[in-house]
Each structure stands twice: as C-alpha cells, then as structure tokens.
Amino acid sequence: MSSNRLTRRSMIRNTSLLAAGTLAARLTGTAAGAIDMDKIETVCTKGRINQSVSKWCFGKWSLDETCQVAKKLGLKAIDLLGPGDFATVKKYGLVVSMVNSHSLTNGLADKKFHAECLAKLQETIDATSEAGFPNVISFSGNRRGIPDDVGIENAVEALKKIAGHAEKKNVTICLEYLNSKVNHKDYMLDNTAWGVEVCKRVGSERVKILYDIYHAQIMEGDIIRTIRDYKDYMGHYHTGGNPGRNEIDDTQELYYPAIMKAIADTGFKGYVAHEFIPKRDPLESLTYAARICDV
Question: Lower CB count within 10 Å: N or C terminus of the chain?
Fold first, then answer.
C-alpha cells in the first residue's frame, strides 16, 4: 500500500514537473533571468480553489512581475500586502487576498497591546473595504507568561470591539495560526482549539482563522480531518512544505492534492495562498504548486 501511494505521488509530481520544467526552461531562456510573460500557460482551470501567492516568498520578482505571473497562471490574488500596493494589484484585475495589519508578536492575547492593535485593524479594515478586498490579518501575539485561557478572554474582548465594524465593512478578520516550535517561539495561537474557541466566543461571521497548513503540520498534523471538522471557522489558508516551508512537492511530508480536495469539498469559497519559499527556479515551483492545487 505504501509503495503504491509513493508511486502514484511520484507519477503525479513527475508529470507536473515535466510540464512545469519545460515551461520554465522556455521562459528562463530569455536574457538575464527575464520572464517571457507571453509564454506562461494557464494551469488553474477548474475553479474549485481560488489560488493566491504571497509576494514576500518570491523576492526576486517585483510586484508587477508577481501580478503578471499570477494572472497568466490563472491565480486570482496576491497575498499579504498593504494598502500602498492595492493600485498595482488592481491594475492586473487581481485581488489582495489578505491585507497586513498589526504586529505579529504584540497581539490581541495581551491587553496592553489592544489599543494599538485595534487602531491598526480599524484603519486596515477601512482601506480594505474601500478597495473591495475580503480579509485583514490579525495575530494572537506572544504569550509572555499569559495562560492560554486568559489569552482567549483577552482576544475575545478585543475582537468584540472591532467585529461589528468588520461586519459593516464586509471584511473578515483572520487570526493566523503559527507554530511556536520552530519559527515563532512563544506565539499563543499555535493550536486549532485556541482559534476555534476565540471565534465561537466572538460569534461573528467576520472573525475566522487563517489556517496555515505548514504551521499546523508542525504543531498538530491531522490536517484534512481538522479542515473538515472546523470548516465553519476557516477564513483563509496558506500552503507551505514541511519541513522547511519550501516547495509543496514530494520532498516533504504534506500531500497537497488531497488537502486541496478536502478544502474544496467543504464548499470553501475564500482564498488559498501559496506561502512557500522556492529553492528551485521560482516560476517552475509556483507553476507546479498551482497545477497540483487545481483539483
């Protein structure tokens, strides 16, 4: 059974890499790493998953280049940008699928940061709403010795003050799940139960979880079951290979075609953003990721 699964996985990957690699070879044949946009082929065609890409992971490309590549591949959005980038993204008919807001470490679980976080969230929600974009990011922040149950109470208190505004503006606040084992020591929202409990207590359709699959795999695993069981609390997804947050291929332990099928089967209509750092040619890696996630 195990060897059969590996054979099927390798076959899928090799087929996709052959197509992506051939495409990348044609594109990178241009001068000095320039991208021949006219030769990029659309790989997202099925429409069940609205794919996005995080600009910060593809640092060799300008925002204009990232938008052009995304548009050509059939992606719908660019992730984790600020209002200053809105005009560029709109120029290409794309969406900013997640808008940056307050500090990652100084978050809602600690009352001393509430005023600063809420001011930033309101400002970002207003700009996001005016642009017609869907989501703003928020963070629990670090524990700093605060018990998890107190952190939940603090986060709920803060979010209840801003949730009504988010509802009026048709913008969803997404609390990001991050791992505290490898990348974000002391971060509080490092398990699904914490985020779900906050969402339940706030009781707003405009407060959800940003379920980062890479981080969740490190902390808890059981990705597909979690997606199915807590679908009503998921507002956004991030991809990434584990270990390393690199390519989402068979060099790592997550099998994204099955994960994407599980997400699509829940009826999720939001965005799945690629947030992995490519080790190979970035166009080859993004093309491959977009292809296998088009389920």
Answer: N
Instruction: Give the predicted TM-score (pTM) of the model.
Output: 0.89
CA distance 191 to 177: 7
CA atoms of 100 and 121, how far apart (whole Å): 9
User: With contact defined as beta carbons under 8 Å apart, do 105 and 116 qualify?
Assistant: no
Cβ-proximal residues to 18 (8 Å cutoff; 6+ apart), any chain: none
Given this model, what pLDDT does residue 25 score? Answer: 41
Question: Residue 164 sits in which domain range?
Answer: 2-292
Pair of tokens at residue 96: 């900013």
The pLDDT of residue 36 is: 87
Helices 256-265 and 282-292: angle between axes, nearest 10 degrees: 50
The Cα–Cα gap between 179 and 166 comes to: 27
Angle between helices 192-202 and 148-169 (to 10 degrees): 50
Tokens 């200053």, residue located:
84
* Residues of the chain falling short of pLDDT 70: 1-33
Question: Which one-letter amino acid corresponds to residue 205?
Answer: E
Query: What CATH number does the domain containing 95 carry?
Result: 3.20.20.150
Rg over alpha carbons for the chain, rounded to the nearest Å, is 19
Q: What is the pLDDT of residues 165-188, one digit of tens each?
A: 999 999 999 999 999 999 999 999
Q: How many domains does the chain have?
A: 1
3-state secondary structure of 235: strand
Write out the two tokens for 89.
């993204």
